[in-house]
Amino acid sequence: METLGTRLRVARRARHLSQEAVARKAQISLTHYQRLEADKHSPNWLTLAALADALGVTPDTLRPESDKIGQDSHSYPDDPGHYRSAS
User: Fold this and answer.
1) Is the C-alpha dihedral spanning 38, 43, 46, 52 positive or negative?
2) Displacement of CA 24 from its chain's centroid (Å)
3) Could you give the C-alpha distances from 11 to 20, 33, 37, 44, 61, in angstroms and in order?
């Protein structure tokens, strides 16, 4: 199963971008990006959205399949919409 890091690497290489270029476009440090691509860290919703934008893909494209099971495409715990009341 593809991890987030694998999906980041595949998307980056498909666009012929360096790690530095993606980090700069996503406004994160190079070290943070490298840790994400190495699957040593997990991004929060805002970072995932910034990475997706930098790579020209949707955030859902980057999410590993295991993260999508039983969730709609926008149910991240740190997504403000996740906490909407069910009125």
Assistant:
1) positive
2) 15
3) 14, 13, 11, 19, 9
4 touches 39 (CB < 8 A): yes
Read off the pLDDT of residues 31-58 as tens digits, 9 standing for 90 and up: 999 999 999 999 999 999 999 999 999 9
Give the CB-side neighbour count of residue 76, counting CA atoms within 13 A: 15
| Architecture of the 4-65+72-83 domain | Orthogonal Bundle (1.10)
Write down the pLDDT at residue 23.
98
pLDDT 10s digits, 57-78? 999 999 876 555 444 444 444 5
What are the extents of the domains in the chain?
A: 4-65+72-83
Q: Where are the beta strands (DSSP E) in the chain?
A: none
Indicate the pLDDT class of residue 87, thresholds 50, 70 and 90.
very low
